[in-house]
Recover the amino acids of this structure.
């Protein structure tokens, strides 16, 4: 009996020892530099690092569930995403071409590669973005509409393939991760709810499953017709400003930042509409996602762009408390609140902002 008990203890210890990941490899161009292994889950950031002489590295740790890590190199922009599980994983590549790095030893990562390929095939490239911006600069609206239709068609096809992929891999953490990433950016909330319901309990209760649940709850809270959640944040003079103090007016809550080029490009349109309706029970409340220590950049952008309306920020970058409260993960973003504090429209840009204000603000 004692031998059986001892054997059982030994097996438990051995299993615990096995439940680790070991990530090793070599990166050309990383000689003499620090190499980092980073993981971020919500507000929790995990970092490990080592000084490499020849570009080689080795990290050991453990995960309670498979999740995304990134291998980064000191002074080099970008990194290599690795979907980590407790196994022996190798990562080899070149700092000049992170996207071509070879990762092996993780079944979850193999599935991640398939998902990422689908995403990239449906994404708009940097070259296409530049071409579109050139058309916009030349006011070629006909060509712009043609490209918009092409991009939308491609995006719809990608989402259809992504949905099929997710449903085919429900027992993979990559699938719940993918749904958590795309849940608010492509699929309709009711469609995401239906897909989430099909997942096994373990994936629903995982970190990514719980994050998705939070996102869906925020979407429901911010639905058209719901009361906008109140908040307080400081203005450029460090004076607190409360959203509800602006009741009695239509308020465009505009999420932006001085470093955000699309935001700065849209600002003239917001300025034009502000000047048109500011004397007709309309105002704008800018919420800036500027970075810590960058207040001067924020204030300068306000002056340069002529943003003569209310402005607040806690200078916490993507951790801006209002942005998190409203589930904002990309900018520019905005929502329109009526004089009673109810949400009446969202994501108003370009002509859509013009038409919506013309209809609502009298």
């Amino acid at each position: 009996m004692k031998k059986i008990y001892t054997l059982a203890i030994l097996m438990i210890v051995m299993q615990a020892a096995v439940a680790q990941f070991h990530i090793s490899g070599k990166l050309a161009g990383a000689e003499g530099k620090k190499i980092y292994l980073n993981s971020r889950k919500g507000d929790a950031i995990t970092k490990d690092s080592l000084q490499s002489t020849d570009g080689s590295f080795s990290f050991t740790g453990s995960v309670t569930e498979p999740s995304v890590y990134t291998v980064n190199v000191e002074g080099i922009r970008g990194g290599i995403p690795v979907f980590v599980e407790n196994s022996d994983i190798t990562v080899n590549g070149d700092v000049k071409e992170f996207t071509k790095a070879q990762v092996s030893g993780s079944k979850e990562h193999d599935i991640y590669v398939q998902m990422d390929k689908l995403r990239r095939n449906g994404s708009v490239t940097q070259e296409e973005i530049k071409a579109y911006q050139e058309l916009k600069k030349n006011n070629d609206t006909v060509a712009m509409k043609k490209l918009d239709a092409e991009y939308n068609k491609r995006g719809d096809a990608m989402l259809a393939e992504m949905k099929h992929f997710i449903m085919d891999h429900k027992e993979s953490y990559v699938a719940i991760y993918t749904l958590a990433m795309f849940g608010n950016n492509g699929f309709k909330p009711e469609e995401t709810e239906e897909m989430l319901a099909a997942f096994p309990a373990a994936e629903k209760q995982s970190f990514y499953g719980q994050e998705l649940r939070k996102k869906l709850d925020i979407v429901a809270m911010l639905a058209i017709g719901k009361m906008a959640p109140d908040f307080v944040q400081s203005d450029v003079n460090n004076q607190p400003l409360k959203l509800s103090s602006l009741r009695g007016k239509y308020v465009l809550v505009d999420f932006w930042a001085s470093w955000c080029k699309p935001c700065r490009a849209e600002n003239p349109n917001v300025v034009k509409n502000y000047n048109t309706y500011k004397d007709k029970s309309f105002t704008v409340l800018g919420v800036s996602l500027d970075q810590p220590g960058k207040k001067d950049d924020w204030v300068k952008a306000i002056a340069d762009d002529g943003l003569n309306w209310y402005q607040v920020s806690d200078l916490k970058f993507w951790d801006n408390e209002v942005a998190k409260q409203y589930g904002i993960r990309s900018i520019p973003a905005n929502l329109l609140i009526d004089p009673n504090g109810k949400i009446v429209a969202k994501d108003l840009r370009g002509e859509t902002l013009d038409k919506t204000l013309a209809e609502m603000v009298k």
User: Anything to note?
Assistant: The chain has three domains: 2-105, 120-221, 232-360. Residues 4-17 have pLDDT under 50 and may be disordered.
